[in-house]
């Protein structure tokens, strides 16, 4: 049974190990693997090619995705989804592994309601904002990239007695900011999920400064859109010379960590096994309390991810 693998939406470290495992595992099973290049746009444009061991040699340690990705606007239109299906049909492909976020899963679900096609989603996004799973491919690597950056920023912040505001990615989700703040001992953390108490934070900071604190690290999730407000407040209200660092897309790059490589392998094997078992329902591979499982696509895309309250409780916030 020919199967294909595709990346969709923002890339994340771990995609390449998943792509490699997909090819190696399908050959092991005596089946034929295909690549869909360029994500959903490539599906529409027929960029579907057989994959060989040679294609995946030496890619395990690389960030990004050798088969590339895209955010497709055309896929919202029925005619393009039909074209995409017909492209798959030319190769007799009836099952697809999709590395992406819930937007990509929603798009694929729409297509599989219209045409006889099964897919299994592997949650892949540094944002960790997908309902039903504790983690996503790419999150661990992104957290380590952020940790590395924060350790370096702390060096210069403490040497110069400055405040640093560091903006991290995550769209509307504060997960990257929360975990980074906890593990880097940041003094301030702002996330979309929690209101920031300016008054209490000011009192705490002023007291700490009176007791000798000479630098401040503030982590701000991009979804709050408050990076420059906090910088202004630290400079003018708290009275500390302040600098802003927006980490940006470096958070999406880098060699996948051991955890992300293992996660990629485990998820891909499960996704392939499910598609080869010829059941008709579309699923998403999830991890809950350290255990792997499969969930129905409806449950994933119709619910909103929320940060574990216990994690928020661990945040050493100043309010
Ligand atoms: O979803 C991953 C992500 O990196 C978000 O954290 C960020 O807001 C967005 O993608 C950036 O998108 P783009 O790469 O299109 O600028």
Describe the model.
By secondary structure, the chain is an alpha/beta fold. The chain folds into two domains: 3-138 and 256-304, Rossmann fold (3-Layer(aba) Sandwich); 140-252, Rossmann fold (3-Layer(aba) Sandwich). The chain has twelve helices and eleven strands. The protein has helices at 15-28, 39-44, 53-56, 78-90, 102-114, 139-160, 175-184, 198-210, 227-238, 258-276, 297-301, 309-314, and strands spanning 3-7, 33-36, 48-50, 95-100, 118-123, 163-168, 188-190, 216-221, 242-246, 283-288, 291-296. The chain has a seven-stranded mixed β-sheet with strand order 3-2-1-4-5-10-11, with helices on both faces. A four-stranded parallel β-sheet has the order 7-8-6-9, with helices on both faces. Strand 1 (3-7), helix 1 and strand 2 (33-36) form a beta-alpha-beta unit. Helix 1 (15-28) crosses helix 10 (258-276) and helix 6 (139-160) crosses helix 7. It is elongated. The protein starts with a strand and ends in a 5-residue tail after the last helix. The structure holds 6-O-phosphono-beta-D-fructofuranose (F6P). Residues 10, 125-127, 169-171, 222, 252 line the site of 6-O-phosphono-beta-D-fructofuranose (F6P). 6-O-phosphono-beta-D-fructofuranose is lined by residues 10, 125-127, 169-171, 222, 252.
